[in-house]
Design a protein that fits this description.
Helix content: 25-40%
Number of strands: 4
Strand order of the largest sheet: 2-3-1-4
Shape: globular
Radius of gyration: 14 Å
Amino acid sequence: MQERCLVVLHSPGPAWEPGLPLTQQLGVREHEAHYAALARQGLLALGGSFADATGGGLMVFKPGLDEDVLRTHALTDPAVESGLLQFEIRPCLVAHKG
């Protein structure tokens, strides 16, 4: 049986400043700190920004994290609250692990 994990996909929101890279967007540090809390709890498998110019990024969480807990966390992200980022939560079936 395949494990199921959750992925948070972030994309630029209405407050995103076109032409500025993610690292220079107002509020990105607060966003990183917000998700660092889940990383310290050992719930985050990996995360990062997309390498192209579209902005946004993704975070992959370890299997077993409750989707309602993750949704509440994502909704209270300062970057989401300010409109810098939007998010979508998608389930993923893990087919291979390193």
